[in-house]
Amino acid sequence: MAEGFANSIKSDVLMAYSAGTKKHGINPRAVQVMKEVGIDISSNESNTTDELPEQNFDIVFTVCSDAHENCPYFSGGKIIHVGFEDPPRLTAEITDEEEILKIYRRVRDEIKDFVNNIESYLGE
Question: What's the predicted TM-score (pTM) here?
Fold first, then answer.
């Protein structure tokens, strides 16, 4: 979701790449709630950090605790952790689809707020 927002609303100040510590595939609920705000992430890929392009990254944002704890070294890059709750983890025991989607929407909106204010992390 962060990559989708960054590439949609902040492409003038940054180039976003998304990668995790493990491949999980694209979550269909994340696709659904992003589509609700007009952003299609259905063609995004679930990549690992090893699959990122060979380049120096100025800033690396980690958005979940697992990535923060296991983030590899990026030469020259500043690593900033901005934690968001993990919707699949939060909803693992919930069976009501509308309750599940409420959690995805809440986290989506928190991520959107972060991306809208990303300049405060970039020192601008």
Answer: 0.83
